[in-house]
Design goal:
This protein is mostly beta strands. The protein has a 16-stranded antiparallel barrel with strand order 1-2-3-5-6-7-8-9-10-11-12-13-14-15-16-17. The protein is 13% helix and 34% strand.
Length: 549
């Protein structure tokens, strides 16, 4: 016991003190970002601290990064001269500063950026490795390991977490039919009201291909591992999915991205081939916390496809056009889960256009299409996003989609007393919900939904921006939320980077259901989805904090 205590004191206490000191000085760090043009510190010499222990190097790297501004403005352009071209970049330059924004690129999924070297920042873990005895070998390999911790808290007008027969939503999209704990549903991801959550502890291991150069084929890969509440929104049927669909664990693990990437130059402007499990190509938002503009997620994002397993190709035709095509086993289901009717060959075709002045982008297509038979999340999605940059401080982005399934059995009701039958699916799991994923529409037959969403961002300072989000989500047959009703959602959020490693995102949000479609069932009140089926509207105040390592 004495040896363990000495180890903890010697290895972790300096790091803890460093983090605390960095957090205390956050305000002064943010102010310094307005005044400095110095590049962020990095490993000037590989192996410079090879004689120190790993934990000491990691502690020093954290302390250094906590005093480093998240954003360093570029040097001013001399009067009368043009802005210098962006180095090591083919095609258009990056339209946004990232940070403070989550990404510097126009929205494009399923591929690395063709024409860019695709370098990622060196966070403390990699800096500690580079500073060690084998630092040069790691640098030469181009393999990086990094990640983050994201936790959140919320206050909600919903609080009802008990009651017999309470239906709080679907398995794949995170709510619990078994416990009734998800009173914030259909809000995502923090469905449990008035509490703190450990959302996601994430580790990436990746190698990114250099797609600026055109003289040789390059390759890359990404392996991701997630633990926390948010795994509920990432799970694929057949990939350690029992923790959700059988046990309904609120906290669990997943690996939402596991893929190999091959870059082939000189095919038009470059070709990317991605094989494995990817996050669905479309969407403004993403599963991983640092890639989002706000702490909470829109309803539009919460209920569309999440992960696909397959082969995806992206071809850059010119500086303005990229086309994509892919084939997968379906949405949120593994290729070997053949009992599920949603496991079937599924296509994807998308294209992106960027304006010559780099102020406008359009990205649209069929993100998932097959025979549309009702199965595990077997939704057909046709989606489009566009973004416009007014200036360096104001930009907007918009997304609209339409989705559907056919042959849905419908929930038990007075007009449909059988509901889900043995002939519809295996009844051996989940008290009869089997392969339906819990997503049983209110009405039988063709089930559809549409949604439209807008984000508008206002940069208030070099490391701070304000976001306004407005959306309309119409679950026409209750196929996504189990309530056949029209929803609206309005949110205002702030994103602040006090230093290179920390992001803080407070927000306030208002959700409302506007009524019924068709006749009500005897199982749910279609007009009152919030607070476990008792309210039409919901106010929430939420925040999250992301710490990179």
């Amino acid at each position: 016991m004495i040896n363990i205590e000495r180890f903890l004191r010697s290895k972790f206490r300096p790091m803890t003190l460093g983090l605390a000191a960095g957090c205390v000085s956050l305000a002064s760090t943010a102010r310094a970002a307005d005044q400095t043009n110095a590049p962020p510190p990095g490993p000037e010499v590989t192996g410079r601290h090879a004689g120190e222990s790993f934990w000491k190097r990691f502690d020093e790297a954290n302390f250094e990064a906590l005093s480093t501004p998240a954003y360093t403005p570029p040097p001013p352009v001399p009067p009368g001269s043009n802005a210098p071209p962006q180095a090591n970049r083919r095609g258009h330059g990056t339209p946004f500063d990232a940070p403070p924004f989550p990404d510097g690129e126009w929205q494009l999924g399923g591929t690395e950026i063709i024409g860019d070297p695709n370098l990622t920042p060196d966070y403390p873990l990699m800096q500690a490795i580079y500073d060690g005895p084998h630092g040069q070998a790691w640098r030469d390999s181009k393999i990086k390991i990094y990640g983050w911790e994201d936790f959140s808290g919320n206050l909600s007008t919903s609080h009802n977490t008990s009651g017999p027969g309470v239906y709080t939503g679907t398995y794949a999209n995170g709510a619990s039919m078994l416990t009734g704990d998800g009173a914030n549903f259909p809000l995502a991801y923090d469905q449990r009201p008035n509490r703190f959550e450990q959302n996601q502890f994430v580790v990436y291991v990746e190698r990114t291909p250099d797609e600026f150069q055109t003289n040789h084929v390059d390759w890359g890969f990404r392996l991701s591992w997630v633990y926390g509440l948010d795994y509920r929104y990432m799970i694929s049927r057949g990939w350690d999915s029992d923790q959700l669909v059988k046990r309904d664990d609120f906290y669990g693990m997943d690996t939402p991205m596991m893929y190999f990437n091959l870059y082939v130059p000189n095919v038009a402007e470059g070709l990317n081939l991605t094989f494995g499990r990817i996050i669905s190509e479309a969407d403004i938002e993403a599963q991983l916390a640092p890639n989002n503009l706000m702490s909470s997620h829109s309803l539009l994002y919460a209920f569309d496809p999440y992960c696909q397993w397959g082969l995806f190709a992206s071809l850059k035709l010119s500086d303005n056009w990229i086309v994509q095509a892919g084939a997968s086993a379906g949405n949120d289901v593994t290729p070997w889960e053949t009992q599920d009717p949603g496991c079937q060959p599924t296509g994807a075709v998308m294209c992106q256009y960027q304006a010559p002045n780099n102020k406008f982008s359009f990205y649209a297509g069929a993100n998932a299409f097959n025979n549309a038979r009702w199965g595990f999340n077997n939704i057909q999605q046709y989606v489009g996003t566009f973004s416009y940059k007014f200036n360096d401080k104001v930009w907007t982005t918009h997304e609209t989609w339409y989705m559907y399934q056919t042959g849905c059995p419908g929930q038990p009701s007075k007009t449909n007393p059988l509901g889900v039958r043995a002939s519809d699916e295996p009844l051996s799991q989940n008290n009869g919900f089997g392969y339906s994923d819990g997503e049983v529409p209110v009405h039988p037959g063709y089930a559809a939904e549409y949604a439209t969403l807008n984000y508008t961002m206002f940069r208030l300072a070099p490391t701070v921006f304000l976001t306004v989000r407005n959306e309309l989500f119409n679950d026409l047959d209750g196929e996504r939320t189990a309530y056949a009703t029209l929803y609206t959602e309005h949110s205002i959020g702030l994103t602040w980077w006090p230093c290179k490693l920390i992001t803080v995102r407070p927000e306030i949000r208002y959700d409302r259901s506007w009524g019924t479609h068709g006749s009500p069932t005897d199982l749910v009140d279609e007009a009152k989805p919030f607070d476990n089926g008792t309210r039409r509207q919901q106010f929430t105040a939420q925040f999250d904090v992301i710490y990179m390592f």
